Amino acid sequence: MTEIFQSEIIISEISNLLKDDKHVAIGAASPIPGSAALLAQEERKNTNLKLQVTILHSQKFNNFTDGSRELFDASAQGRIDTFFLGGVQIDGQANINLVGTGRYPKLDKRFSGSFGSALMYFVVPKIILFREEHTPRTLVKKVDFISAPGISPPNIYRPGGPKYLITNKALFSFNKKKKNFKIEKINPEFTLDEVIKSTGFEFKTNKNLKYFTMPSQKRIDVLRNLIAPKVLNFYPQFAKKLWFN
Amino acid sequence: MVNFTQITVKDIAKEVKDNCLLGIPADYSGVPMSVTIEIIKNKTKGLRLYCLPLTTIQGDMLIGSGCVNEIETAAVTLGEYGQAPRFQDAIENSKINIKDSTCPALHAQLQATEKSVPFMPLRGILGSDLYKNRNDWVVIDNPMNNSNTNDEKIVILPAVKLDILIFHASKADINGNVQIGRRRELATLAHASKKVYVTVEEIVDEDFFDSELKAAATLPSLYIDGISLAKNGAWPCGLTDYYDIDTNEMSKYAKAAKYQETFDEYMRDFILQNNYSNI
Question: What ipTM did this prediction achieve?
Answer without folding.
Answer: 0.96
